[in-house]
Sequence to fold (520 residues):
Amino acid sequence: MSAPAHIAHPPLQGSARLWGTIALSAATFMNVLDSSIANVSLPAIAGDLGVSPNQGTWVITSFGVANAIALPLTGWLSQRFGQVRLFTMSVLLFVISSWLCGLAPNMGSLIAMRALQGFVAGPMMPLAQTLLLASYPPALAGMAMALWAMTTLVAPVMGPLLGGWITDHIHWGWIFFINIPVGIAAAAMAWTLYHKRETQIRKLPIDTTGLALLVVAVSALQIMLDKGKELDWFHSPEVIALASVAAIGFAFLIAWELTDEHPVVELRLLKIRNFWTGTLSMTVAYSLFMGNLVLLPLWLQQFMGYTSTQAGMLMAPVGLFAIILSPLIGKNMNRMDPRVLASFAFVVFSLVLWMRSNFNTQADFGTLMIPTIIQGIALACFFIPLTTLILGGVAPAQIASASGLSSFARIVGGSFGTSIAVSVWQDRAAMHHAQLAELVNRGSIATNTALANFDAAGMGHEQALSQINRLIDQQAFMLAANDVFYGSAVIFLLLIPLVWLSNPPKRGRRGTADAAAGAH
Fold:
């Protein structure tokens, strides 16, 4: 039943506002948690479902791509069904898809359910932010966004810890099942408190052609990146076909969206210098961040002997400094030049990745932990300043479209970055393995010493050679991880001049600051 007219509802008061904040934060927490909780569980999921850990990364990329595709539809869907109704439906469908993910009998069905989960989660975060701001008076908008920032930063800390513990002690399916009680409670509370505050419903046309082109182009490119290594890249007709579909799809998408009256992706925003420089910086930086965030636990568990819980404990501190610093940066954003903060963030990211590029197989837990802790400083100085830059030159009426398009680019970039990082890691490992294997021969003193030691330990010749090959594998993948870390560090530094192509945003733009505080 539609609302007869648009009504500007007053802010919530007292306990209603408290419970509303809890409901919206719980849904947001659940959503963000699900984007990071599976990272440390990938080897266990892949092993249980009979695929390689590298194929297991599809569990992450399918969620990200589907989530990104759903984001541009949020505006149209919220006007078609109402913000409160759409939010409640999104949470409940997320619960159902989480249940199906936990029950998935094979990798194909898990990837399909994760894609469904990502798609239905698309409207959840922007609508939670909108409803949260509407619950508070304008004077308390900053506090509302500080609560939002805390929620979105605590979840990445909890995700690896919770995911690792569940995988080691129960079953990986429970990383999805835990969403069920949280989601049902959040949906029930949100509907109870907000259903009388439903927004006006309008039946606007939707750009079905643009949406279809978007789905085809992005999906083809993601599948190509995920399967490229397995199919030997452009030596495979399948990869060539996927690349062709992606290229043609994006070409038609750009032409269509620039001429359609109600585009699903507002590409005209790319004429604004701050928007395109900020969005490009954000997308590349986030793709590097996500690629390395997935690569590190894979390396630790496959070649360093870490359990899921230990890998989770090592990844969790990434949010500690971010939790402390983000509210301070959000509160004082109007007093600072976001270009300086973003540049500082890129320098810190580069430092962290350079430190990781010097890891070796003897590195202990403390050594591996230090860069993770420092990375939290970069996170705090990354999201809010860049979003402030992106929205700094955008008219107030375009902020929603600009925020949606930049979020779409960031999430797609994260999925692409994950696939590219794992693929480059494998390629470099194969190269290092070949180079190291050349040194294993009868003329090598090290080889003969190792074979003698294994023989003394009671191993046969074949067993000894297998053990040497395992050691070469460990070294090759460590060196390959170092290459990815070092390359990412260099790219972060190269992004700094791009940030300075933008103009500093005007001071005191409430809409910009609000959107920036909750953008991630």
